[in-house]
Design a protein that fits this description.
The protein is mainly alpha-helical. The protein is built from four helices and two strands, in the order H-E-H-H-E-H.
Length: 102
C-alpha cells in the first residue's frame, strides 16, 4: 500500500515541486519522469499514457532525448535539439520498460 502511495506522489509532485528544477531546469527531467511511470501504470493508466506521450515528444531524431521537457512551453519538433554533451546515454532506453506496460 505505501509503495503505491509513494509512487503516486512521485508521479504527481516530485518533478514539479523539486527545488533542483528551477531556472533553466524548470520542467520534467526526461529520464526521471519516464522512470516514474513504471510504478503507477496499473493504478492510473490514462494519466500514465498522457505523460508517456508527452515524454515521447522529447525524443529527437538521433535517438537521444531532451534532458528537460517543459510541459507548458514544449513545442515538439520545433525546439532546438540539445548539444551532444547534454545527452545521457540511457534516456531513451527507459521507454522499453515503460511502453511494454501500456
Amino acid at each position: 500500500m505505501w509503495g503505491l502511495y509513494n509512487c503516486l506522489i512521485t508521479f504527481a509532485w516530485s518533478r514539479a515541486a523539486s527545488l533542483v528544477y528551477n531556472g533553466e531546469r524548470d520542467g520534467l527531467g526526461f529520464r526521471d519522469s519516464v522512470q516514474d511511470l513504471l510504478g503507477v501504470t496499473a493504478a492510473i493508466p490514462q494519466e500514465t499514457r498522457q505523460r508517456l506521450e508527452l515524454m515521447l515528444t522529447g525524443q529527437v531524431s538521433s535517438g537521444g532525448a531532451m534532458p528537460i521537457v517543459q510541459p507548458f512551453t514544449h513545442r515538439p519538433g520545433q525546439e532546438k535539439a540539445p548539444d551532444p554533451e547534454e545527452y545521457r546515454s540511457d534516456d531513451c532506453l527507459w521507454f522499453f520498460n515503460a511502453v511494454r506496460l501500456m
